[in-house]
Structures are given as C-alpha cells and as structure tokens.
Amino acid sequence: MSEATLKTAILRIRRGLLNEVARYHDYNVPYEEGMSVLDALRWIRANRDSTLAIRYSCINANACKTCMALVNGEVEYTCIARLTPDIIIVEPLPKRPLIRDLVTDTVPDDEKL
Ligand code: FES
To answer: Which CATH number fits domain 3-104: 3.40.50.1820, 3.10.20.30, 3.30.413.10, 3.90.226.10?
Structure first.
C-alpha cells in the first residue's frame, strides 16, 4: 500500500487529572482494518506519547473488563470497539473517580483496603 492510500484515525482524547479543566489532545493514528480503539491507544503510547494513562490487561479477550472508557459518548470496552478512519472521541468513564487521563477508580468502595 502506498503512503498516499494510508488511512488515518484521529483519536481526540481527554487528558488530565480530577478537578482539572478538561483538555483534549488529537493524535493521528495509522488506520488498519480490524484495529480496535485499544490498539490505537497502545500505538499512541508506543509511538507518540508514553505519558498517556490507559488501563488494560487482556488486550482483546474481553475477559479483564478493565479497558472501559467512553468512545464517542458510549461506554465501551476499548479492546472490542472497532476503530474507524474518522475522529474518535475517547474519554474516561463519567461516573467513576478520575485518576488520570482515561484511568478511573473502578474498585467498589467495599473492596478497598
Ligand atoms: S482489555 Fe481486557 S476486556 Fe478489554
């Protein structure tokens, strides 16, 4: 595939800490058919910004349930949500305390030490 025919997805990601004014960064990610949103987030960490905080464990087995985020306003497992060569807005879960970037505190209160 020539350089001119490569498609790009733009991930618009909410960055920052709890109680900070929301700020969004755009990252261009080379798109390949079959990629997940988590694939794109991992590509960003490996190639563009290693400070991006994300959480995942099983990568694509939908087993660990740790990769949830808002994808275009819908709660999704990012390892299952399919990437499209468009602008994809990725935000942390809205009803959980924010730790940083896309990582929220998902441990139930009665399970905390
Ligand atoms: S990374 Fe495990 S369910 Fe998504």
So the answer is: 3.10.20.30
Give tens-digit pLDDT for 33-61.
Answer: 999 999 999 999 999 999 999 999 998 77
Q: Return the SS3 of 3.
A: helix
* 6 confidence band (pLDDT: 50, 70, 90): confident
**C-alpha 15 – ligand 1 centre gap (Å):** 21
**Spatial strand order in the sheet of 23-31:** 23-31, 7-15, 87-91, 68-71, 74-77
| Cα 16 to averaged position of ligand 1 atoms, centre (Å) | 22
Global pTM value? 0.90
Ligand 1 contact via 106 beta carbon (within 6 Å): no
